[in-house]
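Posting for a labmate who doesn't have an account.
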Amino acid sequence: MRTRRRRTPHSLRTEVVSPKPIFVGEEGAVGREDSHYRVGGDHAPGRPERATGRVAVPGAHGPAQVSPAPTGTHPRPEAPGTGQPPPPVYRPPARPADTTPNPGSAFPVSPGAPAVTGAAPPGPPVPPPVAEGNPPPDGGGTTPRRRRTLVSVLATVLLLVVAGVGLVVVRPGPVAGWLGDDAEPTVDARAPEAAPVPVLALPAGTAPVPTMEGMRAVLEPLVGAPALGSRVNVSVTDVVTGQELYGRGPDDGTVPASVTKLVTGVTVLAARGPAYRIGTRAVAGAAPGEVVIVGGGDPTLAIDANGFYPGAARLDLLAEQVKQALGGTPPSKVTVDSTLFPGPVHEPGWDSDIPTGGYGSAITALMTDGARRDPDAGPKGAERYRDPDLAAARAFAKLLGVPAGTEVERGKAPTGGGEAAPAGTPAPGTELGKVESPPMIRLVDIMITDSDNVVAEALARQVALARDQPASFVGAATAMDQVATELGLPADELALADGSGLSRTNRISPSLLTDLIALAGNGTRPELAGIFGGLPVGGWSGTLDDRFGTEATRAGAGVVRAKTGTLTGVHAIAGLVTTAEGRLLSFAILTDRTPPNAPDATRLALDRIGAALAGCGCR
């Protein structure tokens, strides 16, 4: 057993990587959840060599570095013994901030959900209501955006209930009806349904802990696969006891890619709480009829009901509030205050094409649809606005009926404000309206399920604001480090430059990730279990939707639940897995020197490790 020592925060510095020309590979070789693949990878000519071996808490923070601003569906694995795809499990995304776990459970259960103690709950299960703003998609002819919504529903929190020392996931309610399948109506809507089908194998209440010798025998042949490259760092930990069962460079800082989002999710849930909502306000400007829209950092804000993110706050509703508050004064001008997020808008360690390649964008305090020009463009490689705050403010001015041709400018909202006379105009600074984002737990779901880089950067800045740091890349990294320390995590094994994982200057150790996952799952901090709601499921949802489908990896389908990370030459996976004997483990595998032109082989090698953990007792 590895004993974790108490660690202190590390010194802070920033490693800046000069942008280099990059070349995008074929579609099949694209690192979809992070950015892309570049021929030559991280060791392409002209790119500096990365640190090797132990990265002893090299902080990635320091004075803000200002960079020049740039001008189908897949077959599902069968549920055991049914010949049918495993059913999705629904959880309403909004959870009260004071949710507490059921006694003996490692995961909090939404109010009203049936307790599971080793068997399916008796009686007819009642389907929970569909969350506001996220109606079930219809059954056919879905657009890419609607298919994305379906995947999000599939990956929404699995009902994770520990029975003794294991884990079971149960499907409540008529799932086919929620997902819009064509089904004949029943005569009596209250007629009992068959007992829920377990998505995962029912664990034994006294599941044995794998031995370190058993783990080594199973994993050593796999972690040495050539497709994983020359540096493979691994940690496997028992969730209940916290005991490390296998380690290979477990404390070594490694480029994590999008696995960084697990740290972002845990720290923002700890700092803001699951129920927190991000507000977007409009206030009266200095001149009569001037309206200042104040960005609060909500990346999911929509223009109208056709926004990209389900349940998003809307500018058209804000405009209606403003027009009512102004009374007879017609709006004459819109100013945008996006000063909540100081620059730079791009992290210096990002590859040079990320701002324009569709996987990232300028990070501003006001934007609509994650800065997408077209809300229907898709979740990843979508064209983004160069100036998201100005684009959103122009859309708002149009909704207000501001005269055409009136220029939208950046500025600062007036301070103060007060009540206006019944027939008078509001005093400068008076709030005219406000709309709010979905709750934080839903935003974390979106970030993790879709590996949404723009949402991740916005949530990282919420950690900064909660800890009185500047809402910038540097301030967010400093605040996340601070919250990790408060949670008792080994912050000297954490060095962040952003919240999405797009930066190659990020370093995280595998053991920090397994400690973080165990902390979120052991019930001591129930609000942190919100990271599991959007965690992709092997062969089923999110970025693991099309993985764990080969004969060598099928044992992990429906059993491995993990966040993936991909950059050129970098592959990572971290999450949860239940062994064949029912023991719940956290695992993290980080590789940052993989062959740049064989991403499929690298992913397969990672999946073989996850499947081996799922298929063994390892004793």
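Reply:
Got it, the structure tokens are right above this. The longest helix spans residues 599-615.
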